[in-house]
Amino acid sequence: MSNTGDAAQTRLIVEQVVEASFVTLADRMAERFQPAAKEPPIHPLVKWLVGAIAGLGAAAIIGIGFWLVSSVSGMQQTLARMDERMVSGAVKDGRVDELDRRVTKLEAYHQGGAKQ
Question: Choosing a second label site near 84 at 20 to 30 A (CA), which of 33, 44, 54, 98?
């Protein structure tokens, strides 16, 4: 039979070795899986300024888009009016030419009639 003192002493040594290995393992795991260092907090004034600048930038982009759409719409209306004037201008030119021909004919008639 084995000696009970040797068994107790062996058991005590094994427990100490196991406990030391768990402590060492825990220390190594803590070093390896430590959370990353926290970044320094950002000052609230900086956050407000960035938010205000972002808001102004968004408003500027919306304003530019609105201006672009309205100016293109205005150009479209202007071109439509110019087309109407050009078409009606051709009709007016034809009427002016007809009136000019008639006035010239009447003036020639009156000039010829005054000499007779």
Answer: 98
